[in-house]
Amino acid sequence: MYERIKARIYDIITPNETRPYAEQLFTIFITLLIALNVAAVILATVTSVAAKYGYYLNLFNTVSLVLFTAEYLLRVWSCTADPQYASPVSGRIKYIFSPLALLDLIAIVPFYAPFVTTADLRI
Predict the structure, then answer these.
(1) Which own/partner contact pairs does 116-122 have at CB distance under 8 Å and 24+ positions apart?
(2) What mean pLDDT do residues 7-21 have?
(3) Residue 98: strand, helix, or coil
(4) Which of 88, 78, 93 has the alpha carbon at shortest distance from 10?
(5) Quick check: 91 and 85 in contact, CB under 8 A?
(6) Per residue in 42-75, pLDDT tens?
(7) How many alpha carbons lie under 13 Å from residue 79 in its C-beta half-sphere?
(8) What's the CA gap between 92 and 70, in Å, rounded?
(9) Nearest residue to 102 via CA among 90, 94, 112
């Protein structure tokens, strides 16, 4: 049952040619969340908007990054359902260093960096 759940999660969060309903919904949700997050970051640079809605924009940004982190962790956890990454340790390491996984990691690390360092890694 554990492996079946992992395989289903992997199927839902990994783009593929067959697009059942759950996969389409997930893809639409993530794409919309990315677009809204970009809009929120842009709006936060407008002084008048930031003064009035800064708290809500930051809250939305934080919630988005937590969701992106959960998605990334689910991808790393479930990647072993793919024969290409089947090995529990080396498969996950191989997945983590794949181009799209590295891009996801680069996108979320700056959010968590202030918790472990004083360097500001936001761009």
Answers:
(1) none
(2) 81
(3) coil
(4) 78
(5) yes
(6) 999 999 999 999 999 999 999 999 999 999 999 9
(7) 22
(8) 16
(9) 94
